[in-house]
Amino acid sequence: MSSEPYDVVVAGAGPAGLLTAALVAGRGHRVLLLERDPCPGGLPGGVVRERSTAVNVVIEDERVTGLRHLPQGEPARTVRARCVVDASGGDSPLRRHVAGARGSSGLAVYACFTADTGRAEGPRRFPFGNGWFWTAPAGDGLTQVGAVVRPDLADRVRADPEGALSGFAEACPPVRDLLAGAVRAAGGPGRIRVRPHWSYADHRLWRPGMLLVGDAACAVGAQPLPVLGTHLACRGAGLAARALDGFLRGTADEAEAFAEFEHRYREAYDSVLHDGIPQDGGPHDGILPGEGLHPEGTFPPPPVPFAGAARAGVSR
Ligand SMILES: Cc1cc2nc3c(=O)[nH]c(=O)nc-3n(C[C@H](O)[C@H](O)[C@H](O)COP(=O)(O)OP(=O)(O)OC[C@H]3O[C@@H](n4cnc5c(N)ncnc54)[C@H](O)[C@@H]3O)c2cc1C
């Protein structure tokens, strides 16, 4: 038993933080979950402290050893833990201690058109050479049509958003056909919008004593495709819980377990970004238990070679 009061302290009780905390506590580890807002429900086997804002991490000899937090109406406190999980979302105040500049960001350009897909089954996604399109019913007979493209196309998109969007549509036959004869909606819905950092994945998702999970680590953007964002956050939680469990039990070396977490999480990000959620297994396929906690609590051999982690830029 370690001298730290907690094995893991998790900052943020969104989908990523809640699931990570629940999975790790479910394996018998001592978990504290901090949430700056009111937090519905509890954490079986763990402790929840709501209305408490994580403000910084404690670093000793290059290792994260705890968290500074500010309970509402009380002085700041320090809590020590063997590992800190940052799941405090896209505006995390903690992620800078792990990650540098955000990488792989994609740019979105989108607007609503009179093309009517209201009878269709819902949002759809179409890959093309520069990225992918989404189409989604937007009510009143309108369809939102947007392209998410590589960041190196930013200048082209910003210089002429309308020309860029129609050029991308021409390169994507299903969208070209959908828009044939359609016109842009009147007023606000028809305005062409450009959003940078629609999707991103940080280059580093861990350091000794700390993991980034959920939007703090990577995101595929606020998008009309249901469940992609939360699916990815939950995938990250499952992978984080697996790595933490292996490390805390002593069945895995921390660096190897965390590097594998990072590698597989970045693979999941790429896969969700480019292919969406695999339809064959449903949205939760791959989160539990295969990529979550091993039934015996051991750390099974990684299904991908660690050379993959090196390819993904891990060097520690
Ligand atoms: C406008 C919009 C629409 C979206 N629509 C969809 C959709 O339809 N389907 C979908 O799957 N995804 C959608 N997403 C993406 C999805 O919401 C996120 O990917 C997902 O919520 C990420 O979960 P998370 O737990 O990482 O972060 P969050 O859900 O952002 O949770 C972070 C939590 O941390 C807390 N927190 C923040 N800072 C601190 C701190 N300093 N200390 C303590 N707690 C803190 C927050 O209060 C919050 O509870 C959308 C996102 C946006 C922005």
TrEMBL record:
<comment type="similarity">
    <text>Belongs to the flavin-dependent halogenase family. Bacterial tryptophan halogenase subfamily.</text>
</comment>
<protein>
    <submittedName>
        <fullName>NAD(P)/FAD-dependent oxidoreductase</fullName>
        <ecNumber>1.-.-.-</ecNumber>
    </submittedName>
</protein>
<dbReference type="InterPro" id="IPR036188">
    <property type="entry name" value="FAD/NAD-bd_sf"/>
</dbReference>
<dbReference type="GO" id="GO:0016491">
    <property type="term" value="F:oxidoreductase activity"/>
</dbReference>
<keyword id="KW-0503">Monooxygenase</keyword>
<dbReference type="Pfam" id="PF13450">
    <property type="entry name" value="NAD_binding_8"/>
</dbReference>
<feature type="region of interest" description="Disordered">
    <location>
        <begin position="291"/>
        <end position="316"/>
    </location>
</feature>
<dbReference type="Pfam" id="PF04820">
    <property type="entry name" value="Trp_halogenase"/>
</dbReference>
<keyword id="KW-0560">Oxidoreductase</keyword>
<dbReference type="InterPro" id="IPR006905">
    <property type="entry name" value="Flavin_halogenase"/>
</dbReference>
<feature type="compositionally biased region" description="Low complexity">
    <location>
        <begin position="306"/>
        <end position="316"/>
    </location>
</feature>
<dbReference type="InterPro" id="IPR050816">
    <property type="entry name" value="Flavin-dep_Halogenase_NPB"/>
</dbReference>
